[in-house]
Amino acid sequence: MSFISKTKELWATSTGLFHHEMTHSFVDNQEIYLLFEMQPLIQGSRFVLFYGIITILAPIIAFYCSRKKIIKLPLAIGYLFVMVASILMATITMDDTLLGMPPLTMFFPSALAAIGLTAPLVLLRTVVQLCSPAHLTCFVTSLASFIRTLGIITGNIIINSRYNASLSQNFTNSMSELGISVEQSQDLFQALRMRNVDLLVDIASRLGVSQQALKVLENIADKAQMDSFRIVWIAVAVLAFLAAAGCIAMSTVNQNEPAPRSTPTITLPSDSMPRVGSVPNQEVRFSAVLDIRRDPEKPLFNDMEEIVKY
Fold it and tell me: Is the pTM of this model over 0.70?
């Protein structure tokens, strides 16, 4: 626990970078569009929405955080936005509609994810440098790059393994109901596994598979793909929560500077010095500036005469 406490900045940054790349690699993934058969214009509009929000908010958040010298609150709020977006993506189904248009169900989570990812995208690159000791800066920077790459690799492993397992199980269970023989199943399964709709249609027409059976096969592939993405979004939501908690636990990078030491004032009675002015019993004040290089054990002045000379 002591090690975790002393390195909580590195733990939070590493979790955040891992989560950021895992989310970033899937929130824009073309595979999710195939589920809703979006038109190129709608796909491009979603890209414009996602990157447009980040482009607009990035300089604003960077300027605000640099002026206010804060990073914990923007990071935590950003990850909470991403967590909500990930939960929405994990619960979405093929039948969900927004304003009567199924493609719009993907726009709202994408907007939330873009808002949430802006702060980590801007700030974590800086936090990696600030929270690391000077002699470990190069090592930590390389580690951060490795963690970002690991997020993409892990996400792809999860989705591909889950997709193949779910597709194989659902396809095997539906073979007898659709009247598909074992000889026909090999080519059809390969086309489904490759997510190649055109190849699937060609093989189905060549093997004499009915349009009804072909539609069922497409639904099986869509369900398997949706299930595989759902696992990723659940993992992203958990990582977003952990990253938010880690960022809240970060130590303040810019500690408040200590107040300057007050200048000592030496007050002398008026009878030990020539009277200044005409006010009786006026006190004369001498301000001595401390030299931080002097020995604190030695007196500031040796005697009263030295004070007068000073």
Answer: no
Beta bridge partners of 286: 266
> How many other C-beta atoms lie within 10 A of the C-beta of residue 249?
15
Burial class (CB in 10 A: 0-12, 13-18, 19+), 127: buried
Provide the mean pLDDT of the chain: 69
What CA–CA distance (Å, rounded) separates 146 from 182? Answer: 44
CA 308 – CA 310 distance, rounded (Å): 5
Which residues are CB-contacts of 88 (< 8 A; sequence separation ≥ 6)? 108, 109, 112
pLDDT the model gives residue 81: 92
Measured at the alpha carbon of residue 169, what is the angle toward residues 167 and 175, in degrees to the nearest 5?
95
Per-residue pLDDT averaged across 255-273, rounded?
51
Count Cβ atoms below 10 Å from residue 108 Cβ, excluding itself: 15
Question: What average pLDDT does the segment 78-96 reach?
Answer: 81
Residues facing residue 265 across a β-bridge: 287
Q: How far, in Å, CA of 128 to CA of 11, rounded?
A: 10
The larger pLDDT score, comparing residue 222 to residue 306, is at: 222
Helices (H) and strands (E) in the chain, counts: 11, 2
pLDDT of residue 137: 72
Alpha-carbon distances of 137 from 14, 21, 131, 143, rounded to whole Å: 14, 21, 9, 10
Structure tokens at 286: 């001498």
Residue with tokens 């980040």: 54
Topology annotation, domain 2-173+229-248:
Growth Hormone; Chain: A; (1.20.1250)
Q: Is residue 114 within 8 Å of residue 50, measured between CB atoms? A: yes
Q: Computed over its alpha carbons, how large is the radius of gyration of the chain?
A: 33
> Domain-by-domain residue ranges, the chain?
2-173+229-248, 265-309
Distance between CA atoms of residues 165 and 145, nearest Å: 31
* Cβ partners under 8 Å of residue 12, min gap 6: 243, 246, 247, 249, 250
